[in-house]
């Protein structure tokens, strides 16, 4: 071991070939307090080698400041759908908004702050009139990658209601997401597929337990089958099979396909489902 170390000396550790990466916190800001927020830059630690290299190149004319570049990069990637002044002007030209402002005492859920109609939500948020501003908000908070593109309805509602308010917000967001082509193409349908149920028999010879029918329930999508040997094909047998072998183990089916036999359409079966 000593002989190996003498023949293979360790290189000088004063130089570190690691690179330095400057990163800026990249996010989408669309709320009305954007103009009052500060810019924060997150930068990586500089190694001694890179620091020495930067020192030797600082005298060059083409040298750029990495901090300024990070701020510029942050500004270019910040998405601002509209300013507070644009929102204020839109409210001033909207008939419904002006009606609330002129009769503000009748609308206890609203108040005026800095000539801007606000809603008493938690937190307090500005009211957005009907029109292009609402469509812009929907695009920003559902379509852009910086906001976690194409989140579902609940997450999108949560993000928007923390910043804005309008009366039909929930309905508009739901309709917008349902009309999104990418969501329709790539999001799986989160619902139980229908199942089919039927009797098979009578089967001869009868088993030792006097069972002469087989009742089965098949998942239409996966073709998974649950079967049970039974004595008869009555409605009570159907109810017992669903309770003991299906609902307690897999949950209640949303849709059951049958041949409309009397044992499937009886009042006893309908009361269970």
Please list the strands of the largest sheet in the order they lie side by side.
8-7-6-9
Radius of gyration from the alpha-carbon trace, in angstroms: 33 Å
Q: Helix count?
A: 12
Q: Structural class, please?
A: alpha+beta
The domain tally reads 3
Helicity level: 25-40%
Mean pLDDT: 76
Q: In percent, how much strand structure appears in the residues?
A: 5-15%
As residue ranges, the low-confidence spans are 10-46, 56-78
Number of strands: 9
Main β sheet profile: 4 strands, mixed
* CATH fold type of the largest domain: Endonuclease III, domain 1
Q: What multimeric state do the chains show? A: single chain
Order of helices and strands: HEEHHHHEEEHHHHEEEHEHH
CATH class of the largest domain: Mainly Alpha
Distance between the termini: 79 Å
Architecture of the largest domain in CATH?
Answer: Orthogonal Bundle
Shape: elongated
Domain Integrase catalytic: 184-273
InterPro entries: Integrase_cat-core (IPR001584), Integrase_H2C2 (IPR041588), Retrovirus_Pol_polyprotein (IPR050951), RNaseH-like_sf (IPR012337), RNaseH_sf (IPR036397)
GO molecular function, one term: nucleic acid binding
Pfam families: Integrase_H2C2, rve
